[in-house]
TrEMBL record:
<keyword id="KW-1003">Cell membrane</keyword>
<keyword id="KW-0325">Glycoprotein</keyword>
<dbReference type="Pfam" id="PF13206">
    <property type="entry name" value="VSG_B"/>
</dbReference>
<comment type="function">
    <text>VSG forms a coat on the surface of the parasite. The trypanosome evades the immune response of the host by expressing a series of antigenically distinct VSGs from an estimated 1000 VSG genes.</text>
</comment>
<keyword id="KW-0732">Signal</keyword>
<protein>
    <submittedName>
        <fullName>Variant surface glycoprotein 1125.2968</fullName>
    </submittedName>
</protein>
<feature type="domain" description="Trypanosome variant surface glycoprotein B-type N-terminal">
    <location>
        <begin position="1"/>
        <end position="208"/>
    </location>
</feature>
<keyword id="KW-0449">Lipoprotein</keyword>
<keyword id="KW-0336">GPI-anchor</keyword>
<keyword id="KW-0472">Membrane</keyword>
<dbReference type="InterPro" id="IPR025932">
    <property type="entry name" value="Trypano_VSG_B_N_dom"/>
</dbReference>
<dbReference type="GO" id="GO:0005886">
    <property type="term" value="C:plasma membrane"/>
</dbReference>
<dbReference type="GO" id="GO:0098552">
    <property type="term" value="C:side of membrane"/>
</dbReference>
Length: 273
């Protein structure tokens, strides 16, 4: 029963709605509501200064996208992410934080995604591609475009990127450095466990159903065995009954003679009329 309960809990950990909610929080922040950009929720400790905020503080997808794709107010490329994506909104580093308007412009450039089911395989493949995009330079990890430097200040002279300090090729060093990517990998692993648990639960349900059917068949067979059939001529049961009847009749004859109330008419003691 413990095995069944354990599999049941694993099989029901996520619904489509709860999985989507977990992913939404990876994008907009753990304490966010809805899909509205809030600079105070997407960065760990926002300071409005790009180089500071984009070094170890871009803990969400939204913050990472802003660091990698938002145009800087001065000495910046108008198309930081790729050619053809012309940005009009800019991050005025050191003066003001990225605005929801800036965020909306960035999102507007994203291609419309076709609705599809969230699967462990799909999320794992996505997380793997994103993890492979992290460049490791001098013991740090970077997402984005590096020009002639690694300072994530958003200018074309250095880098338009996010930095993850002490992020190396050693897998243990990566844990906790990119929280939103860690979260995506965790959800993918949980969904894989859930899909396996669903398969196991269905298998156990089928086995229990077969056992129930087998038990019912055996019980019905026992009922048939317990039903006694009527005795047939020559059977030991019937022979015993005949002997008992003869003994009863003989006793009745003896009792009658002793009482002087009857007379035996016959050729001998055992043959009469």
């Amino acid at each position: 029963m413990e095995k069944i309960e354990s599999e049941r809990q694993a099989a029901t950990k996520y619904t489509a709605e709860t999985a989507q909610e977990q992913i939404r929080k990876l994008v907009f922040g753990e304490t966010s509501n809805g899909q509205t950009y809030d600079n105070s929720k997407v960065f760990k400790i926002p300071s409005n200064t790009r180089q500071t905020d984009c070094t170890d503080d871009a803990i969400t997808v939204a913050a990472t996208l802003v660091c990698v794709c938002a145009k800087e107010n001065a000495a910046a490329l108008a198309t930081p992410c790729f050619r053809g994506q012309l940005n009009t909104q800019a991050w005025n580093s050191g003066v003001s934080a990225p605005s929801p308007t800036l965020w909306n412009e960035l999102i507007w450039h994203c291609p419309e995604a076709r609705a599809s089911a969230i699967t462990a395989t799909g999320l794992k493949a996505l997380a793997t591609r994103l993890r492979a995009m992290v460049k490791i330079i001098s013991g740090n990890g970077y997402l984005g475009t590096l020009h002639s430097g690694t300072n994530c200040d958003g200018t074309q002279a250095t880098a338009i990127s996010t930095q993850y300090s002490a992020y190396t090729a050693a897998v243990p060093s990566r844990q906790g450095k990119i929280p939103w990517l860690d979260g995506l990998e965790r959800i993918a692993a949980d969904l894989a466990d859930q899909e396996t648990a669903i398969t196991n639960t269905n298998t156990m349900a089928e086995q229990i159903s077969r056992l129930r059917d087998d038990a019912y068949t055996i019980a019905e067979a026992c009922k048939l065995v317990s039903i006694q059939q009527a005795p047939t001529a020559g059977s030991p049961m019937l022979q015993t009954s005949d002997k008992q009847e003869c003994a009863t009749q003989k006793n009745s004859k003896t009792t009658c003679e002793n009482a002087g109330k009857c007379k035996w008419k016959g050729n001998n003691e055992t043959k009469g009329e």
